[in-house]
């Protein structure tokens, strides 16, 4: 049962990450892959303030989320002046740089990771309580992203993504929208990171590298960019499928490459067969 | 007449090429100014300088008494500079109505839906309100782009080749809208290669060549000019095509 709880928690975390990343890349058209770093920043912040300063965990989670949001705004203001390939390159640099910084901070456990993070819940109902919390947050995030991307504001986001120059010439402030999207998306990733830190009770810089970015991107692409349910389906599929093959009792030496092959195979399959993803919105052009 | 927009010695270079050389120009409220010249003359660049797509290297642009050069694109639009583009540039993933709803200066604004419906009716596109731009023929896309620009309710209307690729009813509708907008007190500037359109509508015209204003005056004066005939049409006076 504990295994199923852990898979459900992982699915919830990945839904939060994929949905918030979809807001940035799918709806906003901002090609940044530094999403996992905001997950890490909030996770470390929440863990450190609760461990070193005795801040109550719920408050530490809020502080971690805010820390991630504020930092994303500070970083987005200069980075969002560039777009397309340049933004992608800037985000890669940003991600690699931050991982290296974390590896060198003693208070964050440096390269070996931070252990002994206090858990949000304890006792026999710890795991089910985490499942309920994470899935409730995931549902809230899906709803929030849906609300943001529909109606007047959603229409503006869509128009900005379609043609930014034309959009601004109509009197709309594209930079304000981009910063808002980036802040909300990164803040939500931060919330996931803070919750994860107080669930797993361990954080390591290796968890937030380029591979993690690729995994979340795959979830969004396979599910369908710019759709409400695409990232949910992508997160479910790409979290559950590799877990499912663990039931086939293969040696570890085969299992790890097999999981990698499944990811790669799915990406290739979707690129050829259904590039718009599973839940793609019907676009009439 | 009041100058709605005023350009004073505006200059712009791209690398070593001068695309706007000491341009001084006034467009008055209620007039339709025709901007003519061959491709590469700097007509669209002038629109880009006024709307803020490009920052001038020198000189100043005033909307009334308000200097514009330091303002970003969106602030200029909010002050009342509305424009269309050579290529229609409708938002492809938004319906016709939603394209128009992007247009008001006070987005989303009160009564916007009603205003959008009224403007669509004015250009004869009410039936297309829920269609996607890609479902419409080119001429109707031009009408939607014009309608979206009208949503700005601006003081200055910059129309970049509104007649390119259109004919028949669409041509007549655009002509009527341009005329009505000038009557309503807007300063209208039209970049256009269609000489009969310029002749029918414009009160004044400016001839541009290689980033410079070569000549300005009434349309008749310009069309009678030997210099224009030679530089623009590659022939002598009296050989102009309409």
Give a written overview of the molecule.
The complex is a heterodimer of chains A (285) and B (242). Helix content of chain A is 72%, strand content 1%. By secondary structure, chain A is an all-alpha fold. Chain A has one domain. In chain A, 46% of the residues are buried. Chain B has 2 domains: 1-80 and 156-165 and 188-242, Rossmann fold (3-Layer(aba) Sandwich), CATH 3.40.50.300; 86-153, no CATH class. Chain B has 9 helices and 10 strands. In chain B, the strands form 2 sheets. Chain B has a 6-stranded mixed sheet with strand order 6-7-8-3-9-10, sandwiched between helices. A 4-stranded antiparallel sheet of chain B has the order 2-1-4-5, with helices on one face. The mean pLDDT of chain B is 90. At the A-B interface, helix 6 and helix 7 of A face helix 2 and helix 3 of B.
Q: What gap, in angstroms, lies between the N and C termini of chain B?
A: 30 Å
Using only CA atoms, what is the Rg of chain A?
A: 19 Å
The mean pLDDT of chain A is 89
Number of domains of chain A: 1
In N-to-C order, the SSE pattern of chain B is: EEEHEEHEHHHEHEHEEHH
If strands are numbered along the chain, what order do they take across the biggest sheet of chain B? 6-7-8-3-9-10
Summarize the structure in short:
The complex is a heterodimer of chains A (285) and B (242). Chain A is an all-alpha fold.
Which structural traits does this protein have?
heterodimer, A: 285 residues, mainly alpha, globular, B: 242 residues, alpha/beta, Rossmann fold, six-stranded mixed sheet, four-stranded antiparallel sheet, 9 helices
What does the secondary structure layout of this molecule look like, with pairings?
The complex is a heterodimer of chains A (285) and B (242).
Chain A: H1 2-27, H2 35-52, H3 57-79, H4 85-103, E1 114-115, H5 126-148, H6 151-162, H7 164-169, H8 174-200, E2 202-203, H9 210-223, H10 230-244, H11 252-273
Antiparallel strand pairs in A: 1-2
Chain B: E1 3-14, E2 17-28, E3 32-36, H1 43-51, E4 58-63, E5 66-67, H2 73-79, E6 81-83, H3 96-101, H4 112-122, H5 138-150, E7 156-160, H6 168-183, E8 187-191, H7 195-201, E9 204-209, E10 212-217, H8 219-223, H9 226-232
Parallel strand pairs in B: 3-8, 3-9, 6-7, 7-8
Antiparallel strand pairs in B: 1-2, 1-4, 4-5, 9-10
